[in-house]
Design goal:
Number of helices: 8
Oligomer: single chain
Largest sheet: none
Distance between the termini: 53 Å
Order of helices and strands: HHHHHHHH
Strand content: under 5%
Length: 257
């Protein structure tokens, strides 16, 4: 009777343990890292190019005698220059590796968990770089010439931890948006993409209309100001997790091209 009672328990335990396969998940991470230029090389080049252009502009202004404090560097969007490419990274990460991973026996669940882990690792490294470069820029007085690229927008006046957290949240969001859109294409092809675009446009216009007709723009701005940078980017992080969950639900029935 004892053997009969313990048999199902052991089977259930083994079955539960087999649901999470760290080795397979890590194999997906390694698959994404086969071409490191996609996640790290090209974004670093874009960031470096934006920095070089910023420095050239600063030197031109400095040479022309324009006071550096009046040049508006703190309103520059150059620090966000890699984000536009990182949406493409999210697209490429799934479209290039998903068929290959399934061909080697990976499950859709392992694939999505491994892809998500790769996104987290890339976001951590990128956030470390931005937050550290921000401190260097401040310590050198704007790279010795009063120029500012990283100490801009919401980064102004913030500390290292806030810069790291906000960059991490934004990075993760754009990666999962790109990956999530790709799963829609793999599942429903062009019909799904058109439906997604129409739905997103309708949602955006609906929110704009609601805020406008109810005169809620100012209260919304006051509320966002009250929760601060950490609060705003916590909302973005929750949005990233929502995209991750939606992408997993879609990719479970997606078929490779």
């Amino acid at each position: 009777m004892t053997a009969t009672a313990t048999g199902p328990v052991r089977a259930a335990t083994t079955e539960g343990a087999s649901r999470l396969r760290p080795n397979e998940i890590w194999r997906i991470v390694r698959l994404h890292a086969v071409n490191p230029s996609i996640f790290f090389g090209v974004p670093a080049m874009v960031l470096g190019g934006a920095w070089a252009i910023t420095m050239v502009i600063a030197l031109i202004l400095l040479g022309s005698g324009v006071p550096m404090e009046n040049t508006g560097f703190r309103y520059s969007w150059a620090v966000l220059s890699p984000q536009w490419y990182l949406i493409v990274v999210g697209v490429q990460a799934v479209s290039y590796t998903f068929p290959f991973a399934l061909g080697f026996g990976a499950t859709r669940r392992d694939y999505w968990l491994g892809t998500g882990l790769m996104f987290v690792l890339a976001s951590v490294l990128y956030a470390l770089a931005i937050a550290t470069l921000l401190l260097i820029e401040r310590a050198t007085g704007g790279w010795g010439i009063g120029a500012g690229m990283f100490d801009a927008l919401w980064y102004v006046g913030g500390d290292w931890a806030t810069a790291f957290y906000s960059t991490f949240a934004l990075q993760l969001l754009v990666l999962f948006i790109g990956a999530g859109v790709t799963t829609v294409f793999m599942r429903w092809r062009m019909k799904g993409m058109l439906t997604l675009a129409a739905g997103a446009m309708a949602l955006i216009l609906g929110v704009i209309a609601l805020l406008t007709f109810t005169e809620s723009w100012e209260p919304l701005g006051d509320w966002l100001g009250s929760i601060g940078v950490v609060g705003v980017f916590s909302l973005l992080l929750l949005t990233a997790l929502a995209w991750a969950g939606a992408g997993f639900l879609v990719i479970r029935r997606a078929t490779p091209r």
